[in-house]
Amino acid sequence: MPSTVLVGAQWGDEGKGKITDLIASDYDYVVRFQGGNNAGHTVVHGSKKLALHLMPSGVMYEHAVPVIGNGVVVDPGVLVKEMAMLEAEGISCKNLQISCDAHVIMPYHKDLDGADEKRLGTNQIGTTKRGIGPCYQDKMGRKGIRIQDLLDESIFRLKVETALSQKNPILEKIYGLHSYSVEEICEEYLPYARILKPYMTETAQLLNNALRGGKKILFEGAQGTLLDIDHGTYPYVTSSSCCAGGAATGSGIGPTAIDRVLGIEKAYVTRVGGGPFPTELKFAEEGGEGQDAIDGETLCQEGYEYGVTTGRKRRCGWFDAVIARYAAEVNGLTDVAMTKLDVLSAFDKIKICVAYECEGKRYDYFPMQQSVLFHAKPIYEELPGWEGQDITGCRSYDELPENTRAYIEYIEELSGVKTSIVSVGPDRDQTILRGW
Ligand code: IMP
């Protein structure tokens, strides 16, 4: 497996961090190719848990080169802080490589993210307010500021000045916010530039040379398939290409260089922020009732479903095989890692959504129209649970209870992808490998 792309197969938070951490030691390069510090995952370092938002997980391995690819948006202040935190923990960042073509998140991007959400009111997307969307807007609008612009103070000043001539009137006149001077931005950003300069490089060339040299590369996706700007539940998505194709455009390798695509799938589904979610089990405080509200709360509590980046309670629901099938196709998944299977030990009966129903019509495939997805009712099949048996100590597939295996195998049948990795707890060793 010289190069593998790892992607979220749902709405993010599928447990990508644990699986990346588990397999990253086999790779020479670990590459982030999209998103920014809207992502967040916890890595275990000795007895400590560390939260990473921007740094590729490869930083945890001395031999690996962590790469921030051109498709990532970088908040330099966040990166510098994260590097300092890691160094203080004794984890060296010396191998880090940052693409000169990655775009820079500016202070006004964060202001505009928050202000735009406020403007949307009840229709808000529920963004992380890290400036991700506005930064990608500038990138696509061909007026962004890139990492390489930080290398030359005069170019950086000029670009900031040009950007502010548009941003300041928007901030002041449309949103009633304060504007920025070139000086205050330079005062904040130029010191970051001095710290980050030694790590900036042409990462496309670096990675292609690595492939030619027989090195192994892991592309570490953030967010998930249904949050992808093209294939997700638009407009309730993030602004980047989270699907496997994004690994090529976001790093500069060709699609033919990708050997394996591993989709991370939680044994149930969660989502943060707004947007359609057919199998959602609404919490009581959100108007949910009866057994559904109880089941939703159980998933949240047992799965500890609170965001790493925002601390928000995640919306929870039963496994959705329509999504799983869709994710298999749009990513070209060759393998699946199923995470948090142990959380389902709390249930006597477990539901799987096999299709949707909307206005009398059955949908086995992901519906073309967003309005259908908003009103889709899940068609469930119910499987027996494993009677509270603790599966957290299982280390081989055969040790799992029969009903647990039946659950995994039914999902494989519905989605058409083999589950090569099964996770039964948060620790690295609480994992079952099936041909990975
Ligand atoms: P943004 O990426 O901050 O613009 O947020 C857009 C949408 O993506 C919101 O619904 C966020 O909650 C969601 N989102 C962004 N990053 C993550 C993530 O790492 N996990 C789950 N959801 C995310």
Describe the fold and architecture:
The protein has 436 residues and is of the alpha/beta class. The protein has three domains: 3-99 and 199-263, 3-Layer(aba) Sandwich (Adenylosuccinate Synthetase, Chain A, domain 1), CATH 3.40.440; 103-195, Adenylosuccinate Synthetase, subunit A, domain 2, CATH 1.10.300.10; 266-433, Adenylosuccinate Synthetase, Chain A, domain 3 (Alpha-Beta Complex). 32% of the residues lie in helices and 20% in strands. The chain has helices spanning 16-23, 76-88, 107-120, 132-140, 153-174, 182-196, 203-212, 245-249, 290-302, 321-331, 370-375, 402-415, and strands at 3-8, 29-32, 41-45, 48-52, 65-68, 73-74, 97-99, 103-104, 200-201, 217-220, 260-266, 269-271, 315-317, 319-320, 335-339, 349-358, 361-363, 377-384, 419-423, 431-433. The strands form five sheets. The chain has a ten-stranded mixed beta sheet, with helices on both faces. Strands 14, 16, 17 and 18 form a four-stranded mixed beta sheet that branches. A two-stranded antiparallel ribbon has the order 3-4. A hairpin with a 2-residue loop joins β16 (349-358) and β17. α3 packs across α4 and α5 crosses α6 (182-196). The radius of gyration is 22 Å and the shape is globular. The termini are close together. The structure holds inosinic acid. Inosinic acid binds next to α4.
Summarize the structure.
With 436 residues, the chain is α/β, with parallel strands linked by helices. It has twelve helices and 20 strands. The strands form five sheets. It has a ten-stranded mixed beta sheet with strand order 9-7-5-2-10-1-11-15-19-20, with helices on both faces. Strands 14, 16, 17 and 18 form a four-stranded mixed beta sheet that branches.
